Structures are given as structure tokens and as C-alpha cells.
Amino acid sequence: MITQDTGFGNVLPTGEGLFAFNGMDEILAALDAVTSDYEKHGRAARAIAEEYFRAEAVVGKLFQNLGL
Known about the structure:
This protein has one domain (2-66). The protein has a two-stranded parallel ribbon. The protein is elongated, with a radius of gyration of 14 Å. It has helices at 24-36, 38-53, 55-66; strands at residues 2-4, 19-21. The chain is mainly alpha-helical.
């Protein structure tokens, strides 16, 4: 995934499967990286999604933050 840099790189791994950009040069560099090894970046993006966005991880963190 290639998305505008909003600071998510502080909590999510970037550079493989997930890219942050601030300008056109960074978008083009990320596109080059992804298209040069689509399979690798696809696997990395899936791993990030499974680790950080699966329901168990999100709900578990929410409950932990609420003290439950």
C-alpha cells in the first residue's frame, strides 16, 4: 500500500508492503519498489494487516487501553 505520510510510520513498519509519501518523487519510488517485486510487497502488506489490523489485535488493544 502506498499512502500519504500521516506519521503512521511511527507505529507501523514501512518500506516493504507499506509506503508513506510526502511528494511525487516518493510515490514514484514506492511504485517502482512495488512493481519490481509485487509478490514480496504483497506478502509484506498482508503480514502488516494481519499483525496490526486483525480484529483480535485491535479489540485486544482497545480492551487493554480501557483497563479491561
